[in-house]
Amino acid sequence: MKTLIHTRIYALLTQNESNPSELAHAYEEFIETMTEMVANFDNRDDILRILYYSRVEFDVLSHPSFNRYSNNVLRTTFIYKIMYILDCEINIVSNSTKYSSNQDYSFPLSYQDGELLWTGTQQELLELAVALHKNGIIMYGNRKARFIEIVRALSSTFHITINDVYVKKTRMLDRSTAVTPFLDKLKKAYEQVVERHLR
Fold first, then answer.
1. Which residues have C-beta within 8 Å of that of residue 167, sequence separation ≥ 6?
2. b/e per residue 93-112 (b: at least 16 CB within 10 A)
3. DSSP label at 139?
4. Dihedral (CA of 28, 85, 105, 116) sign
5. pLDDT tens digits along 131-189
6. By the 8 A CB rule, do 14 and 47 touch?
7. DSSP secondary structure string for all residues of 1-64
8. Pairing state between β 143-144 and 139-140
9. Helices 147-158 and 20-39: crossing angle, nearest 10°?
């Protein structure tokens, strides 16, 4: 069963970790990973199964029979923070209207003549989204936009539908060929424009 234990916060909490900064950063990464994962599932039962099983795994870390580091208050605090946020996410998913509608989220977005369309590949759009997210230049209110929020904005703007975003992002990052073929192509195109301008 797929769970959220393959995260840095889980690895740290299985040890007697007491570095506040490292735990805080790992906690933020966990929240982002969980949010992206939930956003990329259309089946409520699958999401809830993962969230519930993940909560069990973190709950075990706090159990007296398995908690060798019960005297580490900071570690215990983060374990309970994770379980609380998982409970909150379970409640949100359980009550979300997204899963009670008949809308098929795999349908292509509709568009009219004269609107902007993305003619590149899904991988190219994801490559651009990863770079924008890592750079942190796009804001969502008073915080930096999450990866999935950037993908949704680009998809909506350019009328392209990308399913299983998180899975496709992972596959893209795992590739062993050119690391950033699309961004390299954009950089080369910009350099050509500058060269022509300076002639």
1. 40
2. beeeeebeeeeeeeeeeeee
3. E
4. negative
5. 999 999 999 889 999 999 999 899 888 888 787 788 788 878 876 566 788 898 899 89
6. no
7. ---S-SSHHHHHHTTT---HHHHHHHHHHHHHHHHHHHHT---HHHHHHHHHHHHHHHHHHHST
8. antiparallel
9. 30
pLDDT tens digits along 76-117 = 888 889 988 888 888 888 776 555 443 333 344 555 566 788
Q: Which residues have CB under 8 Å from 158's CB, separation 6+? A: 116, 117, 118, 125
CB atoms inside a 10 Å sphere around CB 113: 5
Q: State the Cα–Cα distance between residues 81 and 55, nearest whole angstrom.
A: 11
pLDDT at 113: 63
Helix, strand or coil for residue 145?
coil
* Residue 139 bridge partners (DSSP): 144
Cα gap 130→133, rounded to integer Å = 5
pTM, whole model, 2 decimals?
0.49
The answer to whether the CB of 129 falls within 8 A of the CB of 158 is no
Q: CB–CB of 148/36 below 8 Å?
A: yes
For the chain, how far is it from start to end, CA to CA, in angstroms? 60
Amino acid 189 reads: A
